[in-house]
Amino acid sequence: MVEINRPEVRNCVNHGTAAELHRAFMMFEETEECGVAVLSGRGGHFCAGYDLKELAGTSVASILGKYELGPAPMGPTHLTRLSKPVIAAVSGYAVAGGLELALMCDMRVVEETATFGVFCRRFGVPLMDGGTVRLHQLIGLSRAMDMILTGRPVDAKEAYSFGIL
């Protein structure tokens, strides 16, 4: 079990959390006794994306520079396909970078409380960890464009009808 543990910020990922997630998935990949991983968030939310407070007052170039040689901004999302399955256990928000983390997984199991979305669109922050590619591959171009361009919330029932689950 890999759990994002920042419930006070709806499990938003900052640089330190991204590094921890990357390490956890590298350990999972290297540990023969582990056959499957479950990614979840503590405290009622899967992940509400990147921690925008960390970005405040900082240039995008300096933030992205942190990730040049290390993990992706959301942690493990730039890893090539893992050799073992990963399941996202989603409750609450899986939005922006949190959506990208959920899409990185082979399967998503969700509670009725789950809300998916490209909320970062509302703030002019791009999906930068493969989310646009994975979303389009999973649910088709038209539905992906709906989510990406509008930034609207998609509840669990609609996500199921889209094929996100």
Automatic annotation (TrEMBL):
Coiled-coil residue spans: none
Record family assignment: Belongs to the enoyl-CoA hydratase/isomerase family.
Record protein name field: Probable enoyl-CoA hydratase
Pfam families cross-referenced by the UniProt entry: ECH_1
GO MF annotation: an example: catalytic activity
Organism: Geodia barretti (Barrett's horny sponge)
Lineage summary: Eukaryota, Metazoa, Porifera, Demospongiae, Heteroscleromorpha
